[in-house]
Amino acid sequence: MERAGLISLTQQNGRPYGIRAAKPIYRTAFNHMLSDTRLTALMGVLTTKQLIQDEEDRIRRYEEEMARLEKVLRGGVRE
């Protein structure tokens, strides 16, 4: 929903903290959704899983870059 421009997530201490409607027209609908504890729990889990996946992807890219740098330092093939 954030990527679609429907909501914006606020963060505190590096963690999702709050959800705001990206446009005032969505506020009533989102207030109704936020009152649903099962939905908010699910969204929290899904958001956390996505954040974990994003960090894992970033780590994988860093590891690949380090492997390429190691090849260069050892006199290997340049990419």
UniProtKB/TrEMBL annotation:
Any one Pfam family match given in the protein's UniProt record, by short name: RNA12
Keywords: Coiled coil, Membrane, Mitochondrion, Mitochondrion inner membrane, mRNA processing, RNA-binding, Transmembrane, Transmembrane helix
Protein's cellular compartments: Mitochondrion inner membrane
Membrane topology, as annotated: Single-pass membrane protein
InterPro entries referenced in this protein's UniProt entry, alphabetically: Mt_escape_2_C, Yme2_C
Domain of life according to the entry: Eukaryota
Main location: mitochondrion
Coiled-coil intervals, chain numbering: 45-79
Transmembrane regions: none
GO biological process: mRNA processing
Sequence similarity: Belongs to the YME2 family.
Full protein name: Mitochondrial escape protein 2
Lineage of the organism: Eukaryota, Fungi, Fungi incertae sedis, Chytridiomycota, Chytridiomycota incertae sedis
